[in-house]
Amino acid sequence: MQLLHRSQAERQKRPAPAIATPAYNLRVFFWGMALTLGLLRVWSHRNEMSPDGISYIEIAWRTARFGLHETVNAYWSPLYPFLLSLVFRFFHPPVQWDFTAAHLLNFIVYATSLASFELFLKELILLGQTAGHSPEKSSPVSSRTVRIWGYVFFLWASYFWLGPNWVTPDLCVAVLVYLAAALLFRIWRGQGSWLVFMGFGALLGLGYLTKAAMFPLSFVFLCSAFCLSRIARASFRGAALRTLLAAGVFSTFAAPLVLLISAAKGRPTFGDVGRISYTEFIDRATKTVHWQGEPIGTGIPAHPTRRIFSDPVVYEFASPIAGSYPPWYDPSYWYEGVRPHFQLKGQLWALFRAANLYLKIFSKSGALWIGFVALWVASRRVLAWGSFASGAWLVILPSMAALAMYALVLVEFRYVAPFALMLLVWMLARIRILGGAEPRLLKRFHLVFILAPALAVAWAVAHDLFDVIQDKPYEPWVVAQQLHAMGIPPGTAVGFIGTGLEAYWAHLAGVRIIAEIPSKEQARFIAADAARRQQVLALFSSVGAKAVITMNADVAKTADGWRQIPGTHHFLWQQPWLIAAPEKK
User: Fold this and answer.
1) Phi/psi at 468 (nearest 5 deg)?
2) Is the peptide bond before 169 cis (omega within 30 degrees of 0)?
3) Which domains does the chain have, with CATH numbers?
4) Which string of b and e fits 474-506 if b means at least 16 CB within 10 Å?
5) What are the b/e assignments for 13-30, b being 16+ CB within 10 Å?
6) Three-class secondary structure of residue 467 per DSSP
7) What is the pTM of this model?
8) Where are the beta strands (DSSP E) in 116-205?
């Protein structure tokens, strides 16, 4: 029972040598487990990709080849592709290893996020030890227990909320917000030196360079820092000057990007992802690609993707944007002219959708439900909720602001994961043990509370091991290789029937999708007569596409001249005179 329940006197008298070895062993155990499982997850998901990940990788390659100006993009933030560009510049991975190289970078960021979370956890434990409660009524759980909870839920969150398998900058955001929260703790404890505030501003600046959503959140962080400095008995002038220093450092990092993208867009902006997302999810504009100005009131497109046929709808987008799939390489170009506006019905629907997503986030794997049911049962007899010192809640205020901000537009697991994890651990650190608590019930509570997330992680680990052992061929890479064998060399312009967001083979083959029939229009293509289908296919050739590809077997009717790409579920169509003769062996 010593794990859960120590008297304050025992904690105050603990000699460093007596606890150093157990604490060190615990840390080594969890670090070893986290790194091993993280590496397993990276390797089992080394081929996993997302449309966002393709854009970051292609921006990174252009940055490595042509310079830093390639990272300036009003939709994709520059820090993550810059880090990827360093990997590509120094290691020069062949194209089939692009995805793996990105995941290995993620593993390094994941390890860094564990170190930064550990600093946050350490500061949180120090906060819990300062809470002034009568030991006769209740006492806080031991620092060792809080550490175990923190480590276990960090591992659990890395599997079910945000892990190194996501080729996005969200893990970088996690590193920075954990460190920023740790510095807020230090400011609250009266250790807010000029150097601490400078580092705080640098973290916020890097946060904005990592993700545009951190720009408005940075002001919440700065407000918290000022208020915590005042609570720590700094004078108003001293707190204000230090906060202004942090704001100045933040501006030093943020201003160049703001000025560059504002100049490119011809209007003040710190990024267009927010305005585009708001118009898509609140005002019901066309999501993701091919906005043509509908519905009325969402703006007038300055240069949308070009509609070149209406039945079925065909879009062309060969220029001026680069990338294997130009509509997603820089969505801000194609969505220039979008005008977000407040709409009560749309906003209420977004909030409902956000509440549903937060429930799903909480319910993922069921571990949190089991843990909190155990907590509710134990709270009736042996546990109680405590409170931290006055004003300490300001440390967690930016996390609450982040959850509220995303709820206004769009919630995704990876967006809110670091903020939700800090809130979760914050709540757990408030648990206190009632005086005279029954040891057996405490042991049972602790066992259930740890086993629930641990078993969920074990199941996910087993799944990753199965994927590694099975080692299935990665179909996009097979498609890329077979395209080359079928006479489609790198640099070829192709068409696609379906939406090209997940056409990862295009990047791997080095080809560019320059026109497409969107997924929702495929049924009209299938229903068309043979003459109309041939007319549409010839239209692809007229805009420069040397081949058309699809993965819809109903689209690929043999009579139209389609050929299945060997070993895949994809199909290829070419004008007869463009079909290469088979190579002689």
Assistant:
1) -65, -45
2) no
3) 8-166+354-468 (no CATH), 475-578 (3.40.50)
4) bbbbbbbbbbeebbbeeebbbbbbbbbbebbbb
5) eeeeeeeeeeeeeeeeeb
6) helix
7) 0.92
8) 138-140
Task: Round to whole Å and give the CA distance between 195 and 200.
Answer: 8
Helices 344-363 and 397-407: crossing angle, nearest 10°?
A: 120
- Residue 512: strand pairing partners: 493
Which has the closest alpha carbon to 51: 503, 476, 354? 503
Digits of tens for pLDDT over the chain (585 positions)? 444 444 334 444 444 444 446 778 889 999 999 999 999 999 999 999 999 999 999 999 999 999 999 999 999 999 999 999 999 999 999 999 999 999 999 999 999 999 999 999 999 998 877 655 545 577 788 889 999 999 999 999 999 999 999 999 999 999 999 999 999 999 999 999 999 999 999 999 999 999 999 999 999 999 999 999 999 999 999 999 999 999 999 999 999 999 999 999 999 999 999 999 999 999 999 999 999 999 999 999 999 999 999 999 999 999 999 999 999 999 999 999 999 999 999 999 999 999 999 999 999 999 999 998 998 888 878 888 887 878 889 999 999 999 999 999 999 999 999 999 999 999 999 888 887 767 888 888 889 999 999 999 999 999 999 999 998 899 999 999 999 999 999 999 999 999 999 999 999 999 999 999 999 999 999 999 999 999 999 999 999 999 999 999 999 976 788 999 999 999 999 987 655 544 444
> Residue 264 and residue 252: Cα distance in Å, rounded?
19
Dihedral sign computed on CA atoms, order 403, 246, 205, 171: negative
